[in-house]
Amino acid sequence: MHAIKIYVGILLALCAATTAGAQTLTAYTEEWAPYNFQDGRDVKGIATDLLREACKTARVNCKVEMVPWARGYKIVRNTPDTVLFTTARKPEREDHFLWVGPILSRSTWVFARPHPADAAGTRELNKLRFGVVRGEAAYQDLLNAGVAPASMLEDSSNASILRLLLSGMVDAMVDTEVAMAWALRSSSLDASTVVKHSNLADEGAYFYAFNLKSNPDVVGRLQAAIDKLKRQGRVDALVRRYTQP
């Protein structure tokens, strides 16, 4: 009996030491279904679930917090051992973060309220008033496409921008096909509520963006975990879970 008590004591001490020394990572994300979104008290989505699985594989404690995109971006730029997702890896952001991924390829589209010219995408982008998420990559993409800053109305989330579009306060917005289909379906709106005007950007991919002073060992372990999960088909499985009816 005495030997058993000693053995149990050693196990408890080892567990306590492991927990005390475990790396804790705080992840910040926005409301952008089906990649990341609030479901009751939980945060779910393709990228959220993948991050949690990667953290489990890499033996990293992960805490996920939902915040407006611009706030999360600022926090992660200034706070070690934090990560921002789902983040487009763009040339102007390259030196701002440590990158883990890719998670998914990136292809964004301009969606507009129905208009006779939009089926062929003949209305010039610089003639449209856009709603954009504050701080998102699409803002620079639109600038590169010739849209003036004065023609862009910023808000905190894609859901807010969609409401602006449906109310007529803006003419168009930028999103992925997957995210727009989810947004319309979850709002019980027909697919014809908006039209796909034109392809805006196909460059790069979506990643997890880590603060530059984050623990390099943790970043490396998480990259290895993501690579392993992708080889096992987990990304494709998560996409199917969240996109197929």
Automatic annotation (TrEMBL):
Pfam families: SBP_bac_3. SUPFAM superfamilies: Periplasmic binding protein-like II. Keywords: Signal. Gene3D superfamilies: Periplasmic binding protein-like II (3.40.190.10). Residues 1-22 form the signal peptide. Residues 27-243 form the Solute-binding protein family 3/N-terminal domain. It comes from the Bacteria. This is Transporter substrate-binding domain-containing protein. It comes from Rhodoferax potami. The lineage of its organism: Bacteria, Pseudomonadati, Pseudomonadota, Betaproteobacteria, Burkholderiales.
